[in-house]
What we know:
The complex is a heterotrimer.
Chain A: E1 22-31, E2 34-44, E3 49-53, H1 60-67, E4 75-80, E5 83-84, H2 90-96, E6 97-100, H3 112-118, H4 132-144, H5 160-173, E7 178-182, H6 190-207, E8 210-214, H7 218-224, E9 227-232, E10 235-241, H8 242-245, H9 248-255, E11 259-263, E12 270-274
Parallel strand pairs in A: 3-8, 3-9, 6-7, 7-8
Antiparallel strand pairs in A: 1-2, 1-4, 4-5, 9-10, 11-12
Helix pairs in contact in A: 3-5, 4-5
Chain B: H1 2-6, H2 8-25, H3 33-41, H4 48-82, H5 94-107, H6 115-137, H7 144-168, H8 173-180, H9 191-216, H10 220-225, H11 230-252, H12 258-270, H13 274-298, H14 307-326
Helix pairs in contact in B: 2-3, 2-4, 2-13, 3-4, 4-9, 4-11, 4-12, 4-13, 5-6, 5-7, 5-11, 6-7, 6-11, 9-11, 9-13, 12-13, 13-14
Chain C: E1 5-8, E2 15-18, H1 19-41, H2 49-57, H3 63-98, H4 110-124, H5 132-152, H6 159-184, H7 187-197, H8 206-233, H9 237-242, H10 247-269, H11 275-286, H12 291-315, H13 324-341
Helix pairs in contact in C: 1-2, 1-3, 1-12, 2-3, 3-8, 3-10, 3-11, 3-12, 4-5, 4-6, 4-7, 4-10, 5-6, 5-10, 8-10, 8-12, 11-12, 11-13, 12-13
Amino acid sequence: MPEDTLNSTMIVGSNIRPAPTLRVDNIRVAYGNTPIIDALSLDIKSGALTAIIGPNGCGKSTLLKAMARVLPVQSGHVLLNATPIHDMPTREVAKTMALLPQGPVAPEGLRVKELVAQGRFPHRSLIRQWSRDDAEAVARAMAATDIQAFADRPIDALSGGQRQRVWIAMVLAQNTPVLFLDEPTTFLDLKVQVDLMTLLRRVAHEDGRTLVVVMHELNVASAFADQLVMMRGGAVIAQGAVNDVFTQDNLLSVFDLSARVLMDPESGRPVCIPQVSP
Amino acid sequence: MTGMRAGVFLFAIPGLAFVFAWHIAVGAKVIPLRTVVEALVAYDETLFDHVVIRDLRVPRALIGAAAGAGLAVAGALMQGVTRNPLADPGLLGLLAGASFLVVLGSFAGLSAPSAIPALAAVGALGAAALVWGIASAVPGGATPMTLVLAGAAVTAFLAALTAIMLLLDETSFDSLRVWLTGTLAGTRGATEIWAVAWLALGLTVALSASRQVTALAMGDDAATGLGVNVQKLRLAILLSVVALTASAVALVGPMGFVGLVVPHIVRLTVGHDYRLIVPGAALGGAIFMLLADIAARMLLAPVEISTGLITALVGAPFFVWLVRARL
Amino acid sequence: MTEKVWQRLDGALTFSLPLCALGMLIALSALLFGVTLIALMSGSFPMSAGDALRSMAGHPPSDMAATVVWEFRLPRALAAAMAGALLAGSGAVLQTVTRNALADPSLVGVSQGAGLAVVTLLVLYPGTPTALRPVLAFFGALAVAALIQTIAARRSNGATMRFILTGIGVAAFLGAVTQAMLTYGDLNRAMSALAWLAGSIHAVNWGDVQILAITFVLIVPALIWAARPLEALRMGSEIATGLGAAVTRDRALLITLSVALAASAVAIVGPLGFVGLIAPHLARRLARSGPGVHLALSLVTGAVLVSAADLIGRTVFAPVQLPAGLVTAVIGAPVFAWLLLTRRGN
């Protein structure tokens, strides 16, 4: 998406409440009797883009789903403005946080506009089936993600990158101060990844929303995130500002990766170059 | 390793012999095992019991064993080729297709002994193609669930057509109806010989292809990498499955769940090598069918219920357990 | 290209309904009326449309006409339409909740549970009044559905797939038990049970119609409620939770609703295969809409299907009467295959 078609007035969010505080307090998440995460605590910075990275199986998706209350926690709390979300009515939670899971599948034949409209679900009800607010939220979300051109096309007919923009439009239409995205850029071309992350960063900074994104691609994470959380074996190994966390030592201890970390002089962001043995 | 697992056959073969003898001993009148053995080795045509054994019970046992073997091997092959633990000639519509075409043939006057297994084969093939086609056309493709659902739909369709044919011609109501539930109590004739010929064909193809079927379990691409011509193998297996199913239906009518249950039990004992599974399923299927027939005759004695009901009463809960344990 | 809608965007009550779907709803209702009228006219005592309408209005041209319309054809037509609607609604809900296009309520043990209950009654206690039959069938079906839910329930992942597959297994088991019961029982009683098992509308009386009508009245609010959870659940359980739907609770309620709808129909007219399978697909092919309007379209489509099937079964091989269940299976399957294979057309 060309830089100049995106300006702050087109991004969703004229009626947003002040970004709530999001805190994970000593949670334990298990599948049956197998614990994936134990005694994990985390503070998510409001109005910023936080990326959670880690090797396969480190529990980052599990953490995200627990934060989004899709997974139950066996002990501890996830607190939204000091209220445990697992105790709140799920519809209220849905007006405050939105989730885009990994590899989402839409019902067959669904059109783009219909999928984006789905994001308005928590704001609608039996007697308020489709209001002006809903129509405007959908229009803004579609403009922000630049998908108006294929509003009436079926989703199955789109490319991977276009489809992902539609899904992001859906969570944007939900108009929540907090957004969770689970591997939104996996399997996409680098150019498409950059475009999507640019959009997400704008949503965080210009709307003041809290975004938590689970990612695989280290350098894309380091280029766009404000805060970084590194996980391994179900625990948080390092967290904080990107430049503080994205270090050679951390890459080695979290990923077993020998890499040099260089600073990009233009952006001021760290980049890792894996060491290749001759 | 394979040697140890093959050792199971040392128990299975005498086991089959025992069940075979037991099957002959059981019936409206229980004949002592000693007499059974005597009838087989020192036949005396003046003894009524010996005549009953030779003319009624031995054929019935042989037919049961043959049909059971055929269905079990067919099921094992289907499970291997579709990589679906729920595959079975009944569940995927082949039995319904076979019996439908046989009934249709009987109304069209095609009831020659050679025609019955042939009709069953064409019917089974058609139904299998239909089920596969429907399951593949659905979003998500031919997963175990879609295959079973498509199989249920096709079976319901063919069963309805069969029921309509029976309604339109009341004279054939009773005999065909009983046959349609799956039974070893049918009339004897040259059909059996033709059916056994088809069975032999199916088993031969199955045995010769068994090594390659094992390779298929890892996926089409991996199997191709190992030198398997996947398309040709699939076709050969299809031929074998259809021939085996047709022979079983010609012998005993549509007998469900044998092809589902037996391969799983066999796999538990001999492992995943199809060179062992195919003969193992043949033996296991024969034993299973004979045991089911014994139960069918003894459970509500003197009333004899159809063996197909027993295989369903055993097989359906097994299927439910499989779904719970494996999926 | 935006679709024409009838919408009201401001105020306490807001909505947006696609005009195409609404128009189709009206057209289908007209078609249902047409099929019903033909059903009233046809049979061993043929009547003109005028005579049939006059008989319905209370001015029959003859006593014979009045009897034929009011004792036989009208209750039968009403029962067919309502049973069709209930089955179609059941299928629409089940397919959306399970996210599987092949889900059919008649496959998941509901019909077999009802069937076994009725056959057991007929064979073991032939003296019980016919009015008790639907009640028993209904509870038989619900019991089976509860059993299936219990067996199939474990983790939330894949629960619906296990539900369907478990249902097929339980259905096969119950079918075998029913067959065994028929073999064991007296031949005459077995025959009447067999007729009902094939799915037949010919034996319905006004009592049955009343029961169906009451079921309808009770179920309509449930269907109105169902539209929203269906909308969320069709996206998958994780997205549905993210959107604020109470997934575990709603899925259980919706599956129960689907079973109740099917059981109500099966209890009166026996199992009618394929209606629950193809009516929702046909409805979607006729007009695009959200799950709520689609539910309404499915209901009317199902009513038309079963009414037509009963009419065909009654007349095509006269005087032999084909049970509607056989007709729906024979026509339904090819229609379904055609729907599947022509899907990629857009």
